[in-house]
Design brief:
This protein is α/β, with parallel strands linked by helices and 237 residues long. Helix content is 47%, strand content 10%. A 6-stranded mixed β-sheet has the order 1-4-3-5-2-6, with helices on both faces. The termini are far apart. Bound molecules: zinc ion.
């Protein structure tokens, strides 16, 4: 019943064919162009496209800040690209900052950087970190922030690493090292929008006893995270 009814309805437009050829087609087209929904639809499309482009830009900014954005209190002494300490592999995303100790009491940041650089020749192991913080609080950057460093095993692919020097085998940082660590981690948190639970010890990532003092003294690590939450950069005040 309905089929025959719709069949009948379909016949009706067909009978219009002769009329369309006499200008009806043009009338119909003009009517479509002046549809009240067309302009808002186009505008919505343009706005969505602009938002998408902006979103991608923001994502890219979060992933890898330009090297020029690194503050002047960081000394850049980037390693040469080599298979052992700076493979040149892109760091695609940053989901955390990992704190380490160098494990070699009394050595300076510069000495540890030289060790990383020397691996290119000796090839004795794979090791490096994005940053080294020395006993006097000096900060050296060894690897660009948009490349991976060899520091945290399986988390190399999505974290930034900081190695801290220490005066003795116990591994506690000097006050100057500690203060620079706060400043550097705080800056990285702002650059990558990381919460304080994304600031971890090497131990939290792989179970390695690093940074030793802050593994053996969990309360000292908790204190560091508290200090980080309360931190405001002297240059920002
Ligand atoms: Zn470590």
């Amino acid at each position: 019943m309905t089929q025959s009814a719709s069949g009948g309805a379909r016949l009706a437009p067909e009978s219009d064919v002769p009329r369309r050829s006499r200008g009806g087609k043009r009338v119909a087209r003009r009517r479509r162009d002046s549809s009240p929904f067309r302009l808002p639809l186009i505008l919505t499309g343009v706005v969505l496209l602009l938002l998408a482009v902006k979103g991608v830009q923001v994502l890219l900014m979060n992933r890898a800040p330009a090297q020029a954005d690194v503050p002047e209190w960081i000394t850049q002494e980037l390693l040469e690209v080599n298979p052992y300490s700076r493979p040149g592999t892109p760091l695609e995303q940053v989901n955390g900052v990992v704190v380490h100790y160098v494990g070699n009491p009394g050595t300076t940041a510069e000495q540890n950087r030289s060790y990383f650089a020397g691996l290119a020749q000796t090839g004795e192991t794979y090791a490096s970190s994005h940053f080294l913080i020395g006993l006097e609080g000096e900060i050296i950057q060894c690897v660009p922030l948009d490349e991976i460093a060899y520091c945290t095993s399986q988390r190399n692919v999505d974290t930034i690493s900081i190695e801290c020097c220490h005066p003795d085998a116990e591994g506690q940082f000097t006050q100057a090292t500690y203060d620079s660590l706060l400043r550097l981690v705080h800056w990285l948190q702002e650059e990558y929008r990381l919460s304080s639970d994304q600031v971890i010890r090497h131990y939290d990532a792989t179970g390695k006893e690093c940074p030793l003092y802050y593994v053996e003294h969990p309360e000292a690590w908790s204190q560091f995270l508290d200090d980080l939450d309360a931190y405001s950069d002297p240059a920002e005040e």
